[in-house]
Amino acid sequence: MKIKYLSIFICSILTASSWAATDNKNDLASFHKSIDGCKTCHATPNKVSDSETFENQQCKSCHGDYAKLANPKLEIDPHSSHLGDINCTSCHKGHEQPKLYCNECHSFEGLDMPFNKAKAKEPWDKGWDNEAINKAIAAGPKETTDVIVVGAGSAGFNAAIAAKKAGANVILLDKAPFSGGNSMLAAGGYNAVGTVQQKDHKVEDKIEWFVEDTMKGGRYANDPKLVQILAEQSADGIKWLESLGANMDDLKRSGGARVDRTHRPSGGLSVGPHIIDVLRKASVNEGVDTRLNSKVVKLVIDEDQKIVGVVVHGKHSGHYMVAAKSVVLATGGYGFNKEMVAFYRPTFKGMTSSNNITSTGDGIELAKAIGASMTDIDWVQAHPTVGKDSRILISETVRGVGAIMVNKDGNRFISELTTRDKASDAILKQPEQYAWLVFDNELYKKAKMVQGYDHLNMLEKANTVSELAKITGMKENALEKTISNYNRYFKQGKDEDFAREQMPLPLEKAPFYAVKVAPGIHHTMGGVAIDTKAEVLNIQSKPLVGLFAAGEVTGGVHGYNRLGGNAVADTVIFGKIAGTNAAKHALNQK
Predict the structure, then answer these.
(1) Which H helix or E strand runs over 385?
(2) How far apart are CA 181 and CA 152, in angstroms?
(3) Three-state SS letters, 26-80
(4) Positive or negative CA dihedral for 220, 224, 226, 227?
(5) Between the CA of residue 54 and those of 45, 387, 464, what are the distances in Å?
(6) I need a surface site. Which of 71, 205, 307, 556 has the fewest CB within 10 A?
(7) Whether 447 contacts 264, CB under 8 Å
(8) Model confidence pLDDT, tens digit, residues 35-79
């Protein structure tokens, strides 16, 4: 790899000698004790909030935010991560060696630095403790609120903000050390019909087309009522995000859509990090009580099967109960739970996953424990383009804005804009079960995310097509012929080989690039069954009173295959619905 050094400066004056002064201990406590002892980090040393809010504020009051700490001289800078301005304690530990959260997904091989060599410590969350849960329930509620939202990704944030705007007191809980969940990894966009953006780009679209495309993509196993809501409220969801400060002005087409309806931030930014950044700020402005390092381990119901609260396992506070009239599950899917994937979809056992490590199916297990019904639970989507031998998703946007997909010899074998399931199947039928995405410098300049892949050393680069073939091991004549034909199809406006419906760019401008890809687990279409109000249904298909759900934890919206761009729309639209109805239910019970 090109990377030689990766440095993280805890303080701008920190040097090798200052580490030596702390007996070579890289933990924060060892470094700061010579300054002012525990008071440097803690208000009360023996009382730390689960979110470690005060401690993180102390870090930034001294060292500044990530923008100040960013070091443009570094080839890979953790302070300029796509995760945004997350809690310092996500990586830096008070009484342990620092450990980069980046390493949960990325592998920076060959780096000689202590932070990458930190030994794994005992996790604070060691799994379900039934004795502690029962004690918390027996002790009764530690506090009371109107609405509890479980999971601080896009669905959770949208639910919490909507509930707060509807007049409810809201507590938003997440087990991770920072918010965002799987939504932080969303790179494609948000499908919507009837927007100002489509009008400005003179794109003709209809709600019925959106519905038809989604049902067809899901093999008609979707719940038509939920799909209708997704389509009808999609434009309002864009307006909602824009009212909170989001930019959704760019427009492209994702696989399975007949027109350009995938909205994303202008400038080629990834949609997920942008939306989460906006939602984080909006939740603060609305006064949402967000608590991190706070895992919900039990949904508490009364003798009438009505929701009365949850049991939380906090990193520092232990197990405690919070009473609430409404709970919204927004915990995401189970795409990073190898056991659940192997159980529900045995043919995908052992497949790599592009999911956040938080996607472990917690909400599904919580809901099942109180009698919730599941729908399409065994349907798992493999994304066709995960970086080979990595966990990095190569966004569908790359194909959408012009890349072609070829096999190991350099031949195209399917339309690049087909649905994800068909593309994945086609790659897995290739002898080596991988493919190459090939594009030129025009696309490289247009899509910032591609520059990010280059930053991670995932791209092969060459000045000529012939040279690119040699570097990648493709057949020189085959790749040259493939690109020549594609450029001819571009000029005539018709793909004679695979009837690709949209060819935004030719492949003409050097340098040329290729990235090796293979299918990886990306989305779990099935989950908790909900109705049109986002109420969770029991096994008799009746609402579990007070329990709502939105996002990837649910099933029914996407059927057997999700179209790119529909997941973000799902989180926003049904997150809003769940939060609004949860608030309405809770406030009506007072």
Answers:
(1) strand 380-387
(2) 6
(3) CCHHHHHHHHHHHHHCCCCCCCCCCCCHHHHHHHHHHHCCHHHHCCCCCCCCHHH
(4) positive
(5) 11, 38, 55
(6) 71
(7) no
(8) 666 777 887 766 889 998 888 888 888 888 888 888 877 767 778
Q: Are 334 and 308 in contact (CB under 8 A)?
A: no
Alpha carbons 222 and 224: distance in angstroms, whole number:
6
pTM (2 decimals)?
A: 0.85
Taken in order 481, 486, 491, 496, the sign of the CA dihedral is: positive
CA-based torsion, 452, 454, 459, 462: positive or negative: positive
* pLDDT tens column, 453-484: 998 889 999 999 999 999 999 999 999 999 99
> How many Cα neighbours within 13 Å face the side chain of 210?
27
Q: How far is CA 545 from CA 194, 281, 303, 530, 560, in A?
A: 34, 31, 12, 12, 28
Q: Given 280, 345, 420, 562, which residue is catalytic?
A: 420
Q: How far is residue 335's CA from residue 363's CA, in Å, rounded to a whole number?
A: 13
Residue 416: both structure tokens together: 């690049």
Distances (CA, A) of 233 to 57, 80, 82, 210, 258: 38, 34, 29, 11, 19
Does 420 qualify as catalytic in the annotation? Answer: yes
Q: Which residues contact 118 (CB under 8 A, 6 or more apart)?
A: 26, 96, 97, 98, 99
Q: How far apart are the first and last CA of the chain?
A: 61
Look at residue 2 in the predicted model and tell me its pLDDT: 36
**Helix, strand or coil, per DSSP, at residue 459:** coil
Closest by CA position to 552, among listed 298, 369, 376, 350: 376
Give the residue among 179, 6, 28, 14 at the shortest CA–CA distance from 97. Answer: 28
The Cα–Cα gap between 544 and 523 comes to 25
CA distances from 150 to 40, 80, 281, 300, 327 (A): 32, 28, 18, 13, 7
pLDDT for res 110: 53
pLDDT, tens digit (0-9, with 9 covering 90-100), for 315-347: 999 999 999 999 999 999 999 999 999 999 998
Residue 524 forms beta bridges with which residues?
Answer: 380
Distance, in Å, from the CA atom of 385 to the CA atom of 502, rounded to the nearest integer, reads 19
pLDDT value of position 109: 61
420-430 pLDDT, tens per residue? 889 999 999 99
Which helix (H) or strand (E) segment is 286 a member of? helix 271-286
Name which of 111-120, 122-131, 407-416 the model is least confident about: 111-120
Q: Which two tokens stand for residue 177?
A: 């050390």
Report residue 108's pLDDT band, with 50, 70 and 90 as the boundaries: low
Which residues, including other chains, have CB under 8 Å from residue 57's CB and lie 6 or more apart? none
Which residue in 6, 3, 58, 8 sits closest to 35, CA to CA? Answer: 58
Q: Pairing between strand 318-323 and 374-375?
A: unpaired
